[in-house]
Amino acid sequence: MIVVGGGHAGLEAALAGARLGQKTLLVTQRLATIGTLSCNPAFGGPAKGGLVREVDALGGYAALGADQAATQCRVLGEKKGPAARATRNLVDRASYNRLALQYASSFPGLELLEGEAKAVLTQAGEVSGLELVDNRRLRAKAVVLTGGTFWNGRIYHGLVSEPGGRIGESPATHLKASLESLGHRVSRLSTSTAPRLLAKTVDFTGLAEQPGDASARPFSALSGPPRNLVSCYLTWTNPRAHQIVRDNLKTSIIYADNPVSSGPRYCPSLEDKIHNFPHRERHMVFLEPDGPELIYPGGLPTGLDPQTQQAFINAIVGLEKTVIARPGYAIEYDVSDPTQLAPSLESLLVKGLFLAGQINGTSGYEEAASQGIWAGVGAALRASGSEPFFLRRDQALLGVMLDDLTVLGVEEPYRMFTSRAEWRLLLREDNADLRLSPVAEKLGLLDSERSRLFQMKRVGLERGFQILERCRLSPAQVQELASQFPMLEKDRQADGPLAAVDFLRRPSVKLEYLLPIWPELAQLPISAQLTLETEIKYAGYLARQEREVKKLANQENLPLPKDLNFLAIPGLSREAVEILNRSRPLTLGQASRLRGVTPASLSALAIYLHKQTATQIASPAD
Fold it and tell me: What's this model's pTM, rounded to 2 decimal places?
Protein backbone atom coordinates (compact mmCIF):
# COMPACT_ATOMS: atom_id res chain seq x y z
CA MET A 1 0.00 0.00 0.00
CA ILE A 2 1.06 3.60 -0.62
CA VAL A 3 0.41 6.60 1.65
CA VAL A 4 0.68 10.11 0.23
CA GLY A 5 1.64 12.83 2.71
CA GLY A 6 3.84 12.81 5.83
CA GLY A 7 1.71 14.84 8.22
CA HIS A 8 -0.14 13.38 11.19
CA ALA A 9 -2.72 11.52 9.07
CA GLY A 10 -0.14 10.16 6.65
CA LEU A 11 2.31 9.10 9.36
CA GLU A 12 -0.33 7.15 11.30
CA ALA A 13 -1.73 5.56 8.13
CA ALA A 14 1.70 4.38 7.01
CA LEU A 15 2.64 3.01 10.45
CA ALA A 16 -0.69 1.16 10.70
CA GLY A 17 -0.18 -0.44 7.31
CA ALA A 18 3.30 -1.62 8.25
CA ARG A 19 2.07 -2.93 11.63
CA LEU A 20 -0.52 -5.04 9.83
CA GLY A 21 2.17 -6.64 7.69
CA GLN A 22 1.72 -4.73 4.45
CA LYS A 23 4.73 -3.56 2.49
CA THR A 24 4.09 0.15 2.88
CA LEU A 25 5.52 3.18 1.08
CA LEU A 26 5.12 6.73 2.45
CA VAL A 27 5.52 9.36 -0.29
CA THR A 28 5.97 12.97 0.84
CA GLN A 29 7.45 16.11 -0.69
CA ARG A 30 10.09 16.53 2.04
CA LEU A 31 11.11 13.70 4.37
CA ALA A 32 12.53 16.20 6.87
CA THR A 33 9.04 17.56 7.60
CA ILE A 34 7.39 14.25 8.55
CA GLY A 35 5.25 14.83 11.67
CA THR A 36 5.58 18.64 11.57
CA LEU A 37 3.16 20.61 13.76
CA SER A 38 2.07 23.39 11.40
CA CYS A 39 0.11 25.53 13.86
CA ASN A 40 -0.10 25.45 17.66
CA PRO A 41 2.52 23.63 19.78
CA ALA A 42 0.08 21.33 21.59
CA PHE A 43 -1.84 18.07 21.49
CA GLY A 44 -5.11 17.35 23.24
CA GLY A 45 -7.81 19.38 24.93
CA PRO A 46 -11.58 18.74 25.11
CA ALA A 47 -12.45 15.67 22.99
CA LYS A 48 -9.10 16.00 21.19
CA GLY A 49 -7.34 14.42 24.16
CA GLY A 50 -9.76 11.51 23.85
CA LEU A 51 -8.83 11.11 20.17
CA VAL A 52 -5.13 11.03 21.08
CA ARG A 53 -5.76 8.33 23.69
CA GLU A 54 -7.79 6.35 21.13
CA VAL A 55 -4.86 6.52 18.72
CA ASP A 56 -2.66 5.04 21.46
CA ALA A 57 -5.24 2.36 22.27
CA LEU A 58 -5.08 1.36 18.60
CA GLY A 59 -1.27 1.17 18.68
CA GLY A 60 -0.57 4.54 17.01
CA TYR A 61 2.29 6.99 17.44
CA ALA A 62 0.86 10.47 18.19
CA ALA A 63 0.27 9.87 21.91
CA LEU A 64 3.79 8.57 22.51
CA GLY A 65 5.35 11.42 20.51
CA ALA A 66 3.28 14.03 22.35
CA ASP A 67 4.46 12.64 25.71
CA GLN A 68 8.12 12.44 24.70
CA ALA A 69 8.16 15.98 23.29
CA ALA A 70 6.01 17.45 26.09
CA THR A 71 7.11 20.60 27.90
CA GLN A 72 3.93 20.95 29.97
CA CYS A 73 0.99 18.66 30.81
CA ARG A 74 -2.39 19.80 32.13
CA VAL A 75 -5.81 18.36 32.94
CA LEU A 76 -8.73 20.46 31.71
CA GLY A 77 -12.40 20.31 32.71
CA GLU A 78 -11.75 18.43 35.95
CA LYS A 79 -14.81 19.98 37.65
CA LYS A 80 -17.14 19.19 34.74
CA GLY A 81 -17.07 15.44 35.28
CA PRO A 82 -15.36 12.49 33.61
CA ALA A 83 -16.99 12.95 30.19
CA ALA A 84 -15.46 16.43 29.93
CA ARG A 85 -12.11 15.70 31.58
CA ALA A 86 -9.34 16.30 29.04
CA THR A 87 -5.55 16.09 28.87
CA ARG A 88 -3.49 18.67 26.97
CA ASN A 89 0.26 18.53 26.34
CA LEU A 90 2.26 21.53 25.29
CA VAL A 91 5.07 20.15 23.11
CA ASP A 92 8.35 21.23 21.64
CA ARG A 93 7.52 21.21 17.92
CA ALA A 94 11.10 20.65 16.80
CA SER A 95 11.46 17.66 19.13
CA TYR A 96 8.19 16.13 17.97
CA ASN A 97 9.23 16.48 14.33
CA ARG A 98 12.64 14.92 15.02
CA LEU A 99 11.22 12.03 17.05
CA ALA A 100 8.50 11.30 14.47
CA LEU A 101 11.05 11.17 11.65
CA GLN A 102 13.30 8.85 13.64
CA TYR A 103 10.37 6.58 14.49
CA ALA A 104 9.15 6.35 10.89
CA SER A 105 12.65 5.90 9.45
CA SER A 106 13.37 2.85 11.60
CA PHE A 107 9.91 1.23 11.51
CA PRO A 108 10.00 -2.31 10.06
CA GLY A 109 8.17 -2.72 6.75
CA LEU A 110 7.86 1.03 6.10
CA GLU A 111 9.78 2.74 3.29
CA LEU A 112 10.00 6.51 2.86
CA LEU A 113 10.24 8.28 -0.50
CA GLU A 114 10.64 11.96 -1.34
CA GLY A 115 8.38 12.90 -4.23
CA GLU A 116 5.08 14.45 -5.26
CA ALA A 117 2.02 12.47 -6.30
CA LYS A 118 0.49 13.25 -9.68
CA ALA A 119 -2.37 10.79 -10.14
CA VAL A 120 -4.08 7.77 -8.61
CA LEU A 121 -3.88 4.85 -11.03
CA THR A 122 -6.96 2.64 -11.38
CA GLN A 123 -8.12 -0.37 -13.30
CA ALA A 124 -11.74 -1.52 -13.57
CA GLY A 125 -12.82 0.74 -10.70
CA GLU A 126 -10.03 -0.35 -8.35
CA VAL A 127 -6.74 1.23 -7.31
CA SER A 128 -3.72 -0.14 -9.14
CA GLY A 129 -1.06 2.32 -8.00
CA LEU A 130 0.24 5.87 -8.00
CA GLU A 131 1.97 8.07 -10.59
CA LEU A 132 4.50 10.66 -9.45
CA VAL A 133 5.22 14.01 -11.10
CA ASP A 134 8.51 12.61 -12.45
CA ASN A 135 6.37 10.00 -14.30
CA ARG A 136 7.41 7.07 -12.12
CA ARG A 137 4.56 4.60 -11.67
CA LEU A 138 4.30 2.65 -8.42
CA ARG A 139 2.03 -0.37 -8.11
CA ALA A 140 -0.16 -0.89 -5.04
CA LYS A 141 -3.39 -2.58 -4.00
CA ALA A 142 -4.43 0.37 -1.84
CA VAL A 143 -3.60 4.09 -1.71
CA VAL A 144 -4.20 6.52 1.18
CA LEU A 145 -4.29 10.22 0.26
CA THR A 146 -3.52 12.73 3.01
CA GLY A 147 -1.72 16.05 2.62
CA GLY A 148 -3.25 18.52 5.09
CA THR A 149 -3.41 22.04 3.68
CA PHE A 150 -0.99 21.27 0.84
CA TRP A 151 -3.58 20.53 -1.86
CA ASN A 152 -3.40 23.70 -3.98
CA GLY A 153 -2.62 25.59 -0.81
CA ARG A 154 -2.39 29.37 -1.01
CA ILE A 155 -0.98 31.45 1.87
CA TYR A 156 -2.25 34.98 2.55
CA HIS A 157 -0.26 37.67 4.38
CA GLY A 158 -3.08 40.18 4.50
CA LEU A 159 -4.11 40.64 0.86
CA VAL A 160 -0.73 39.51 -0.50
CA SER A 161 -0.66 35.81 -1.36
CA GLU A 162 1.65 33.10 -2.56
CA PRO A 163 1.33 29.38 -3.31
CA GLY A 164 2.19 27.24 -0.28
CA GLY A 165 1.08 24.27 1.74
CA ARG A 166 2.81 25.62 4.84
CA ILE A 167 5.01 28.67 5.30
CA GLY A 168 8.15 28.15 3.21
CA GLU A 169 6.89 24.95 1.53
CA SER A 170 5.42 24.38 -1.93
CA PRO A 171 1.83 23.17 -2.38
CA ALA A 172 0.76 19.90 -4.02
CA THR A 173 -0.97 20.89 -7.25
CA HIS A 174 -1.70 17.72 -9.21
CA LEU A 175 -4.00 15.45 -7.22
CA LYS A 176 -7.13 17.59 -7.55
CA ALA A 177 -7.47 16.82 -11.26
CA SER A 178 -6.87 13.13 -10.62
CA LEU A 179 -9.47 12.93 -7.88
CA GLU A 180 -12.06 14.85 -9.91
CA SER A 181 -11.49 12.56 -12.88
CA LEU A 182 -12.47 9.67 -10.59
CA GLY A 183 -15.75 11.40 -9.70
CA HIS A 184 -14.83 12.99 -6.37
CA ARG A 185 -16.14 16.47 -5.59
CA VAL A 186 -13.47 18.97 -4.53
CA SER A 187 -14.06 22.35 -2.86
CA ARG A 188 -12.08 24.89 -0.81
CA LEU A 189 -11.77 25.68 2.91
CA SER A 190 -9.48 27.96 4.87
CA THR A 191 -7.86 28.39 8.25
CA SER A 192 -5.38 30.73 9.89
CA THR A 193 -2.55 30.60 12.37
CA ALA A 194 -1.29 33.01 15.03
CA PRO A 195 1.91 35.07 14.83
CA ARG A 196 5.03 33.82 16.62
CA LEU A 197 6.49 36.22 19.17
CA LEU A 198 10.10 36.63 20.30
CA ALA A 199 10.04 35.29 23.86
CA LYS A 200 12.74 37.67 25.14
CA THR A 201 10.58 40.68 24.21
CA VAL A 202 7.53 39.55 26.23
CA ASP A 203 7.01 41.05 29.70
CA PHE A 204 5.45 38.36 31.89
CA THR A 205 5.40 40.59 34.99
CA GLY A 206 1.94 40.62 36.52
CA LEU A 207 0.48 38.09 34.07
CA ALA A 208 -1.37 35.06 35.44
CA GLU A 209 0.91 32.02 35.43
CA GLN A 210 -0.37 28.59 34.38
CA PRO A 211 2.05 25.90 35.55
CA GLY A 212 1.83 22.27 34.60
CA ASP A 213 -0.19 19.67 36.49
CA ALA A 214 1.81 16.99 38.27
CA SER A 215 -1.30 14.78 38.48
CA ALA A 216 -1.83 14.71 34.70
CA ARG A 217 -1.68 11.26 33.11
CA PRO A 218 0.41 10.74 29.98
CA PHE A 219 -1.42 10.12 26.71
CA SER A 220 0.34 6.83 26.00
CA ALA A 221 0.32 3.67 28.08
CA LEU A 222 4.03 3.42 27.23
CA SER A 223 4.98 6.78 28.78
CA GLY A 224 6.30 7.68 32.19
CA PRO A 225 5.30 10.60 34.47
CA PRO A 226 4.24 13.94 32.94
CA ARG A 227 6.95 16.38 31.84
CA ASN A 228 6.41 19.89 33.21
CA LEU A 229 9.35 22.06 32.17
CA VAL A 230 7.69 25.42 31.43
CA SER A 231 4.78 27.63 32.45
CA CYS A 232 2.24 29.35 30.23
CA TYR A 233 0.85 32.81 30.95
CA LEU A 234 -2.50 34.45 30.47
CA THR A 235 -3.30 37.91 29.13
CA TRP A 236 -6.29 39.54 27.41
CA THR A 237 -7.11 41.67 24.42
CA ASN A 238 -8.74 45.04 25.13
CA PRO A 239 -10.87 47.76 23.47
CA ARG A 240 -7.80 49.51 22.06
CA ALA A 241 -6.58 46.33 20.36
CA HIS A 242 -10.12 45.65 19.09
CA GLN A 243 -10.34 49.12 17.53
CA ILE A 244 -7.06 48.55 15.68
CA VAL A 245 -8.52 45.37 14.21
CA ARG A 246 -11.84 47.03 13.29
CA ASP A 247 -10.04 49.89 11.56
CA ASN A 248 -8.02 47.45 9.47
CA LEU A 249 -10.46 44.60 8.77
CA LYS A 250 -10.13 45.13 5.03
CA THR A 251 -6.43 44.29 5.24
CA SER A 252 -7.41 40.71 6.14
CA ILE A 253 -8.23 38.27 3.35
CA ILE A 254 -10.91 36.89 5.68
CA TYR A 255 -12.84 40.20 5.40
CA ALA A 256 -11.61 41.39 2.02
CA ASP A 257 -13.96 42.15 -0.87
CA ASN A 258 -12.99 38.76 -2.31
CA PRO A 259 -12.49 36.68 0.88
CA VAL A 260 -11.15 33.16 1.28
CA SER A 261 -13.49 30.18 1.69
CA SER A 262 -15.14 29.19 4.96
CA GLY A 263 -12.85 29.05 7.97
CA PRO A 264 -13.20 27.16 11.26
CA ARG A 265 -16.20 28.24 13.34
CA TYR A 266 -14.75 26.78 16.56
CA CYS A 267 -11.22 28.14 16.20
CA PRO A 268 -12.12 31.58 14.87
CA SER A 269 -9.69 34.20 13.71
CA LEU A 270 -9.16 37.32 15.81
CA GLU A 271 -11.06 39.20 13.11
CA ASP A 272 -14.06 36.89 13.49
CA LYS A 273 -14.05 37.23 17.28
CA ILE A 274 -14.09 41.02 17.18
CA HIS A 275 -16.51 41.33 14.24
CA ASN A 276 -18.99 38.68 15.41
CA PHE A 277 -18.92 39.53 19.13
CA PRO A 278 -18.75 43.35 19.25
CA HIS A 279 -20.14 43.38 22.82
CA ARG A 280 -17.10 41.50 24.16
CA GLU A 281 -14.54 43.91 25.59
CA ARG A 282 -11.77 41.34 25.83
CA HIS A 283 -10.73 37.89 24.64
CA MET A 284 -8.35 35.51 26.38
CA VAL A 285 -4.82 35.04 25.03
CA PHE A 286 -2.64 32.09 26.14
CA LEU A 287 1.09 32.78 25.89
CA GLU A 288 2.58 29.33 25.26
CA PRO A 289 6.31 28.62 24.87
CA ASP A 290 6.99 27.40 21.32
CA GLY A 291 10.54 26.15 21.73
CA PRO A 292 13.18 28.11 23.67
CA GLU A 293 12.95 31.36 21.67
CA LEU A 294 9.33 31.81 20.60
CA ILE A 295 5.90 32.31 22.15
CA TYR A 296 2.69 31.13 20.51
CA PRO A 297 -0.22 33.47 21.44
CA GLY A 298 -3.09 30.99 21.55
CA GLY A 299 -6.38 32.64 20.66
CA LEU A 300 -4.95 35.03 18.05
CA PRO A 301 -5.04 33.25 14.65
CA THR A 302 -5.27 35.98 12.04
CA GLY A 303 -5.18 36.87 8.36
CA LEU A 304 -4.49 40.58 8.93
CA ASP A 305 -1.54 42.23 7.22
CA PRO A 306 1.76 42.06 9.19
CA GLN A 307 1.79 45.78 10.09
CA THR A 308 -1.67 45.58 11.69
CA GLN A 309 -0.66 42.41 13.54
CA GLN A 310 2.29 44.22 15.10
CA ALA A 311 0.06 47.13 16.14
CA PHE A 312 -2.61 45.05 17.88
CA ILE A 313 -0.01 42.81 19.54
CA ASN A 314 1.65 45.89 21.09
CA ALA A 315 -1.75 47.05 22.39
CA ILE A 316 -2.03 43.97 24.68
CA VAL A 317 -0.80 43.97 28.28
CA GLY A 318 2.59 42.27 28.54
CA LEU A 319 3.18 42.56 24.80
CA GLU A 320 3.72 46.34 24.58
CA LYS A 321 7.32 45.90 23.38
CA THR A 322 6.96 42.46 21.87
CA VAL A 323 8.46 41.81 18.44
CA ILE A 324 6.71 39.48 16.00
CA ALA A 325 9.20 36.88 14.77
CA ARG A 326 6.82 35.52 12.15
CA PRO A 327 3.43 37.03 11.29
CA GLY A 328 0.31 34.92 11.36
CA TYR A 329 -1.29 34.04 8.04
CA ALA A 330 -4.40 32.57 6.46
CA ILE A 331 -4.30 29.59 4.14
CA GLU A 332 -6.85 28.28 1.65
CA TYR A 333 -6.69 24.70 0.38
CA ASP A 334 -8.62 21.96 -1.44
CA VAL A 335 -10.82 19.44 0.36
CA SER A 336 -12.65 16.40 -0.94
CA ASP A 337 -16.31 15.77 -0.08
CA PRO A 338 -16.21 13.17 2.73
CA THR A 339 -19.79 12.01 2.00
CA GLN A 340 -18.26 10.14 -0.94
CA LEU A 341 -16.42 7.92 1.55
CA ALA A 342 -17.51 4.90 3.57
CA PRO A 343 -16.99 5.08 7.37
CA SER A 344 -13.75 3.15 6.78
CA LEU A 345 -12.64 6.26 4.80
CA GLU A 346 -12.57 4.22 1.61
CA SER A 347 -13.89 5.89 -1.52
CA LEU A 348 -17.38 4.80 -2.57
CA LEU A 349 -16.26 5.33 -6.17
CA VAL A 350 -12.86 3.63 -6.30
CA LYS A 351 -12.14 0.42 -4.41
CA GLY A 352 -8.85 0.62 -2.50
CA LEU A 353 -8.66 4.44 -2.39
CA PHE A 354 -8.73 6.01 1.10
CA LEU A 355 -8.64 9.66 2.19
CA ALA A 356 -7.71 10.97 5.65
CA GLY A 357 -7.07 14.22 7.49
CA GLN A 358 -7.67 17.81 6.49
CA ILE A 359 -8.49 16.84 2.92
CA ASN A 360 -11.71 15.44 4.42
CA GLY A 361 -12.53 18.88 5.80
CA THR A 362 -11.33 18.48 9.39
CA SER A 363 -9.03 20.68 11.46
CA GLY A 364 -6.47 19.71 14.07
CA TYR A 365 -3.61 17.27 14.55
CA GLU A 366 -5.75 14.93 16.64
CA GLU A 367 -8.56 14.62 14.09
CA ALA A 368 -5.97 13.98 11.37
CA ALA A 369 -3.98 11.38 13.32
CA SER A 370 -7.05 9.37 14.31
CA GLN A 371 -8.42 9.41 10.77
CA GLY A 372 -5.00 8.41 9.50
CA ILE A 373 -4.68 5.32 11.65
CA TRP A 374 -8.16 4.16 10.64
CA ALA A 375 -7.56 4.80 6.93
CA GLY A 376 -4.30 2.86 7.28
CA VAL A 377 -6.17 -0.05 8.85
CA GLY A 378 -8.75 0.01 6.08
CA ALA A 379 -6.11 0.18 3.35
CA ALA A 380 -4.12 -2.68 4.86
CA LEU A 381 -7.23 -4.84 5.11
CA ARG A 382 -8.18 -4.01 1.52
CA ALA A 383 -4.64 -4.75 0.28
CA SER A 384 -4.77 -8.16 1.99
CA GLY A 385 -8.19 -8.95 0.51
CA SER A 386 -10.11 -8.51 3.77
CA GLU A 387 -13.26 -6.46 4.27
CA PRO A 388 -12.93 -3.06 6.05
CA PHE A 389 -13.69 -2.81 9.76
CA PHE A 390 -16.13 -0.18 11.08
CA LEU A 391 -16.31 1.70 14.39
CA ARG A 392 -19.68 2.60 15.90
CA ARG A 393 -20.69 5.93 17.43
CA ASP A 394 -21.02 4.27 20.84
CA GLN A 395 -17.58 2.68 20.50
CA ALA A 396 -15.21 5.60 19.94
CA LEU A 397 -14.98 9.35 19.49
CA LEU A 398 -13.28 8.39 16.25
CA GLY A 399 -16.43 6.48 15.31
CA VAL A 400 -18.50 9.61 15.95
CA MET A 401 -16.23 11.71 13.74
CA LEU A 402 -16.17 9.16 10.91
CA ASP A 403 -19.95 8.96 10.97
CA ASP A 404 -20.36 12.75 11.07
CA LEU A 405 -17.98 13.27 8.15
CA THR A 406 -19.24 10.55 5.87
CA VAL A 407 -22.95 11.10 6.54
CA LEU A 408 -23.26 14.85 7.11
CA GLY A 409 -20.25 16.18 5.23
CA VAL A 410 -18.66 19.56 5.99
CA GLU A 411 -19.34 23.18 5.14
CA GLU A 412 -16.51 24.46 7.35
CA PRO A 413 -13.47 22.83 8.98
CA TYR A 414 -14.77 20.11 11.33
CA ARG A 415 -13.53 20.00 14.90
CA MET A 416 -14.26 17.19 17.33
CA PHE A 417 -16.18 18.13 20.49
CA THR A 418 -17.38 16.01 23.38
CA SER A 419 -20.86 17.40 22.74
CA ARG A 420 -20.95 15.73 19.31
CA ALA A 421 -20.97 12.32 21.04
CA GLU A 422 -24.41 11.34 22.31
CA TRP A 423 -22.81 8.54 24.39
CA ARG A 424 -20.05 10.78 25.74
CA LEU A 425 -20.01 9.23 29.22
CA LEU A 426 -19.15 5.89 27.61
CA LEU A 427 -16.42 7.50 25.48
CA ARG A 428 -14.12 8.92 28.16
CA GLU A 429 -10.37 9.44 27.97
CA ASP A 430 -9.70 7.01 30.82
CA ASN A 431 -11.41 4.01 29.15
CA ALA A 432 -10.13 4.45 25.58
CA ASP A 433 -7.98 1.34 25.97
CA LEU A 434 -10.85 -0.74 27.36
CA ARG A 435 -12.95 0.23 24.34
CA LEU A 436 -10.41 -0.05 21.54
CA SER A 437 -7.41 -2.15 22.56
CA PRO A 438 -9.43 -5.39 22.12
CA VAL A 439 -10.18 -4.19 18.58
CA ALA A 440 -6.49 -3.44 18.03
CA GLU A 441 -5.49 -6.88 19.35
CA LYS A 442 -7.99 -8.55 17.05
CA LEU A 443 -6.68 -6.66 14.03
CA GLY A 444 -3.02 -7.21 14.96
CA LEU A 445 -2.25 -3.52 15.59
CA LEU A 446 -1.21 -3.69 19.24
CA ASP A 447 2.43 -4.27 20.16
CA SER A 448 3.28 -6.72 22.93
CA GLU A 449 4.08 -4.07 25.57
CA ARG A 450 0.84 -2.15 25.07
CA SER A 451 -1.04 -5.43 25.13
CA ARG A 452 0.65 -6.42 28.41
CA LEU A 453 -0.17 -3.07 30.03
CA PHE A 454 -3.75 -3.25 28.80
CA GLN A 455 -4.21 -6.70 30.33
CA MET A 456 -2.70 -5.46 33.61
CA LYS A 457 -5.22 -2.63 33.70
CA ARG A 458 -8.15 -4.90 32.91
CA VAL A 459 -7.15 -7.38 35.61
CA GLY A 460 -6.50 -4.54 38.07
CA LEU A 461 -9.93 -3.07 37.38
CA GLU A 462 -11.64 -6.40 38.07
CA ARG A 463 -9.57 -6.82 41.23
CA GLY A 464 -10.52 -3.32 42.41
CA PHE A 465 -14.25 -4.01 42.01
CA GLN A 466 -13.87 -7.23 44.03
CA ILE A 467 -12.04 -5.46 46.87
CA LEU A 468 -14.57 -2.65 47.12
CA GLU A 469 -17.53 -5.04 47.01
CA ARG A 470 -16.02 -7.22 49.75
CA CYS A 471 -14.65 -4.68 52.20
CA ARG A 472 -16.69 -2.87 54.87
CA LEU A 473 -16.23 0.38 56.76
CA SER A 474 -17.32 0.75 60.37
CA PRO A 475 -19.00 4.00 61.49
CA ALA A 476 -15.82 4.81 63.42
CA GLN A 477 -13.72 4.45 60.26
CA VAL A 478 -16.10 6.74 58.36
CA GLN A 479 -15.76 9.39 61.08
CA GLU A 480 -11.97 9.00 61.08
CA LEU A 481 -11.87 9.56 57.29
CA ALA A 482 -14.16 12.58 57.65
CA SER A 483 -11.69 14.14 60.08
CA GLN A 484 -8.78 13.60 57.67
CA PHE A 485 -10.34 14.56 54.34
CA PRO A 486 -12.82 17.22 53.14
CA MET A 487 -16.25 15.61 52.92
CA LEU A 488 -19.85 16.81 52.71
CA GLU A 489 -21.76 16.61 56.00
CA LYS A 490 -24.20 13.99 54.69
CA ASP A 491 -21.30 11.85 53.42
CA ARG A 492 -19.94 11.56 56.98
CA GLN A 493 -22.96 9.59 58.18
CA ALA A 494 -22.98 5.82 58.70
CA ASP A 495 -25.53 3.97 60.84
CA GLY A 496 -23.71 0.65 60.60
CA PRO A 497 -21.09 -1.24 58.59
CA LEU A 498 -20.92 0.23 55.09
CA ALA A 499 -19.69 -1.44 51.91
CA ALA A 500 -16.66 0.39 50.53
CA VAL A 501 -18.26 0.52 47.07
CA ASP A 502 -21.32 2.30 48.49
CA PHE A 503 -19.15 4.74 50.43
CA LEU A 504 -17.20 5.59 47.27
CA ARG A 505 -20.45 6.44 45.47
CA ARG A 506 -20.94 9.39 47.82
CA PRO A 507 -20.25 12.70 45.99
CA SER A 508 -17.35 14.05 48.07
CA VAL A 509 -15.59 10.71 48.66
CA LYS A 510 -12.52 9.88 46.58
CA LEU A 511 -10.79 6.55 46.05
CA GLU A 512 -7.56 7.98 47.45
CA TYR A 513 -9.28 8.27 50.87
CA LEU A 514 -9.53 4.47 51.00
CA LEU A 515 -5.96 3.62 50.00
CA PRO A 516 -4.50 3.83 53.55
CA ILE A 517 -7.20 1.46 54.84
CA TRP A 518 -6.79 -1.11 52.04
CA PRO A 519 -3.22 -0.83 50.62
CA GLU A 520 -4.02 -3.48 48.02
CA LEU A 521 -6.06 -0.81 46.21
CA ALA A 522 -2.94 1.34 45.99
CA GLN A 523 -1.14 -1.53 44.24
CA LEU A 524 -3.57 -1.37 41.30
CA PRO A 525 -2.28 0.41 38.15
CA ILE A 526 -2.97 4.16 38.36
CA SER A 527 -4.98 3.96 35.12
CA ALA A 528 -7.16 1.24 36.66
CA GLN A 529 -7.73 3.33 39.81
CA LEU A 530 -9.07 6.27 37.80
CA THR A 531 -11.45 4.13 35.75
CA LEU A 532 -12.54 2.19 38.83
CA GLU A 533 -13.56 5.36 40.66
CA THR A 534 -15.35 6.78 37.62
CA GLU A 535 -17.32 3.64 36.85
CA ILE A 536 -18.46 3.24 40.46
CA LYS A 537 -19.50 6.86 40.90
CA TYR A 538 -21.35 7.04 37.58
CA ALA A 539 -22.65 3.48 37.48
CA GLY A 540 -26.30 4.52 37.16
CA TYR A 541 -25.65 6.95 34.31
CA LEU A 542 -23.43 4.46 32.51
CA ALA A 543 -26.05 1.74 32.78
CA ARG A 544 -28.69 4.09 31.38
CA GLN A 545 -26.54 5.00 28.37
CA GLU A 546 -25.76 1.33 27.73
CA ARG A 547 -29.51 0.55 27.74
CA GLU A 548 -30.13 3.39 25.30
CA VAL A 549 -27.39 2.11 23.00
CA LYS A 550 -28.92 -1.37 22.95
CA LYS A 551 -32.40 0.03 22.39
CA LEU A 552 -31.29 1.95 19.32
CA ALA A 553 -28.96 -0.73 17.97
CA ASN A 554 -31.61 -2.52 15.92
CA GLN A 555 -32.55 0.63 14.02
CA GLU A 556 -29.00 1.96 13.87
CA ASN A 557 -27.60 -1.19 12.29
CA LEU A 558 -30.49 -2.03 9.94
CA PRO A 559 -28.66 -2.22 6.59
CA LEU A 560 -29.81 -0.41 3.46
CA PRO A 561 -29.15 -2.37 0.24
CA LYS A 562 -26.58 -0.66 -1.98
CA ASP A 563 -28.97 -0.79 -4.95
CA LEU A 564 -32.06 0.32 -3.01
CA ASN A 565 -34.45 2.30 -5.25
CA PHE A 566 -35.62 5.12 -3.00
CA LEU A 567 -38.12 6.28 -5.63
CA ALA A 568 -40.03 3.01 -5.14
CA ILE A 569 -40.60 3.59 -1.41
CA PRO A 570 -44.08 4.96 -0.59
CA GLY A 571 -44.14 7.99 1.68
CA LEU A 572 -40.69 9.40 0.88
CA SER A 573 -40.70 13.06 -0.10
CA ARG A 574 -38.91 14.19 -3.23
CA GLU A 575 -36.36 16.01 -1.05
CA ALA A 576 -35.68 12.85 1.00
CA VAL A 577 -35.24 10.79 -2.18
CA GLU A 578 -32.71 13.32 -3.53
CA ILE A 579 -30.77 13.38 -0.25
CA LEU A 580 -30.75 9.60 0.12
CA ASN A 581 -29.70 9.06 -3.49
CA ARG A 582 -26.88 11.57 -3.13
CA SER A 583 -25.55 10.24 0.20
CA ARG A 584 -26.36 6.52 -0.19
CA PRO A 585 -26.31 5.78 3.60
CA LEU A 586 -25.30 2.25 4.56
CA THR A 587 -27.70 1.89 7.52
CA LEU A 588 -30.97 3.33 8.75
CA GLY A 589 -29.00 4.98 11.56
CA GLN A 590 -26.86 6.87 9.05
CA ALA A 591 -29.98 7.91 7.14
CA SER A 592 -31.46 9.32 10.37
CA ARG A 593 -28.58 11.80 10.67
CA LEU A 594 -28.88 13.24 7.17
CA ARG A 595 -30.04 16.85 7.04
CA GLY A 596 -33.48 16.96 5.42
CA VAL A 597 -34.48 13.36 6.16
CA THR A 598 -37.52 13.84 8.40
CA PRO A 599 -38.86 11.42 11.05
CA ALA A 600 -41.77 10.71 8.66
CA SER A 601 -39.32 9.74 5.92
CA LEU A 602 -37.41 7.51 8.33
CA SER A 603 -40.63 5.81 9.38
CA ALA A 604 -41.54 5.15 5.75
CA LEU A 605 -38.07 3.80 5.08
CA ALA A 606 -38.12 1.53 8.16
CA ILE A 607 -41.59 0.15 7.31
CA TYR A 608 -40.48 -0.61 3.75
CA LEU A 609 -37.31 -2.39 4.92
CA HIS A 610 -39.18 -4.49 7.49
CA LYS A 611 -41.79 -5.49 4.86
CA GLN A 612 -39.03 -6.48 2.44
CA THR A 613 -37.35 -8.57 5.14
CA ALA A 614 -40.66 -10.25 6.04
CA THR A 615 -41.32 -11.03 2.36
CA GLN A 616 -37.90 -12.60 1.94
CA ILE A 617 -38.42 -14.78 5.01
CA ALA A 618 -41.88 -15.88 3.81
CA SER A 619 -40.66 -16.57 0.26
CA PRO A 620 -37.03 -17.67 0.43
CA ALA A 621 -35.07 -17.73 -2.83
CA ASP A 622 -34.66 -21.09 -4.56
Answer: 0.91
